[in-house]
Amino acid sequence: MDIDRLLNLLTAAAWGLFFFLATVSFLRTTRQYGFRVALRQLTSLRTLVVLMLLVSASLLSSAIVFIEPQEMGVVISILAQQGFREQPLLSGLRWIVPLAERVVVYPNYWQTYTMSSNPLEGEAVGDDSIIARTSDGQEVHLDTSIIFRLDPHQVVRIHQVWQNRYIKDFVRPVVRGVVRTEIAAFNVDEVNSESRQDLERQLKAELTVQFEAKGLILDQFLLRNISFSSDYAHAVEQKQVSEQGRQQRIYEADQIVHIAAGRATEIVRLAQANADARILEARAEATALQLISDVIEKNPDLLTYQYINRISPSLRVMLLPNDNPLILPIDSAMNALSAADTPAAVPTPTPIVPIATPSAIAGTPTPTPSPTSEP
Predict the structure, then answer these.
(1) Which residues of 253-262 are buried (b: 16+ CB within 10 A; e: fewer)?
(2) What's the per-residue H, E or C state across the chain?
(3) How far from chain centre, in Å, is Cα 343?
(4) What architecture (CATH level 2) is domain 111-228?
(5) How many angstroms separate the CA atoms of 259 and 373, rounded?
(6) Where are the domains of the chain?
(7) Contact 130/222 with Cβ under 8 angstroms?
(8) pLDDT digits over 289-304, tens only?
(9) Rounded to an integer, what distance in angstroms lies between the CA atom of residue 215 and that of residue 155?
(10) Could you give the CA distance from residue 119 to residue 375 in angstroms, rounded to a whole number?
(11) What pLDDT, in 10s, does the model give residues 42-90?
(12) pTM of structure
């Protein structure tokens, strides 16, 4: 409990006790010794001393004022020429002249004033939002909050001009007027876009100047909510739906392009892999052919030998044109075959009878092939 309040409480209790005891003593003396004796006792020196002590305690309690840390005081004084002290009382234990001065306390903390369409949020009852019109004639409803405090060096002037009416008579009307003026410089699309931050900064700058001129310090101005007319809100909603549909189509198109690009990349990679495989295969074939060519170049009879090995064992007669040379050098082939085979007996190859040309067939009888011996 504050010391000034404690002194006031003790002083009030002492006065109450004094009057109670004085009344009881007066009535008792009156019954026993009469009214005159009781009156003489009531005005005795002892009673007057007690009375003077009580008056001194009352004056002392009135002279001591304790200002809370979150408060400041304006001293109203009949001793000052202008009727008040020029310097306010800041927090702490302060002295004033009893009966000649009194203190009016003002808050020194940050205060918040809200104007909202929600009846439970605003300072006023009911819908207290600010209704304004944009530059293109659209009606908007704004929920705002301001955080401010009184300037300790200007609190005496605030008391002179506004007293405790500074919120009702200054803060509220100034905020509503400045908001309406600034909103009129923006169109509805700007209010509903990133330009809202510019609007909020302009409002804070303008209100800061006006508050400082009246002795108030503005800390924050907040645009808590902006609502529009039902027609405009419906139009904005439809626009948002259309925009979301467009974004969805763009997203789906991007997905299709991404899938097609992935498939194209896969096809290119597969084609490249096939091409690389073909190149490797061709290089292998080329290497194999080069090796075969080198071997044949060193041993030409090897080709004849391989050809003979691939002749079917059931082949007995081969017919060739009579005017063409033999396909294979039989003598060289037979020698190569003899050298390559084991010492086992090699069957005698069947003689190849030339086939006569059509002109020979017409003029010359076809000779009968001689019988071949079986191996």
Answers:
(1) eeeeeeeeee
(2) CCHHHHHHHHHHHHHHHHHHHHHHHHHHHHHHHCHHHHHHHHCCHHHHHHHHHHHHHHHHHHHEEEECCCEEEEEEECCCCCCECCCCECCEEEECCCCCEEEEEEECCCEEEEECCCCCCCCCCCCCCEEEECCCCCEEEEEEEEEEEECCCCHHHHHHHCHHHHHHHHHHHHHHHHHHHHHCCCCHHHHCCCHHHHHHHHHHHHHHHHHHHCCEEEEEEEEEEEEECHHHHHHHHHHHHHHHHHHHHHHHHHHHHHHHHHHHHHHHHHHHHHHHHHHHHHHHHHHHHHHHHHHHHHCCHHHHHHHHHCCCCCCCCCEEECCCCCCCCHHHHHHHHHHHCCCCCCCCCCCCEEECCHHHHHHCCCCCCCCCCCC
(3) 95
(4) 2-Layer Sandwich (3.30)
(5) 75
(6) 3-107, 111-228, 317-362
(7) no
(8) 888 777 777 787 776 7
(9) 7
(10) 124
(11) 788 888 888 888 888 888 888 888 888 899 999 999 988 888 898 999 9
(12) 0.56
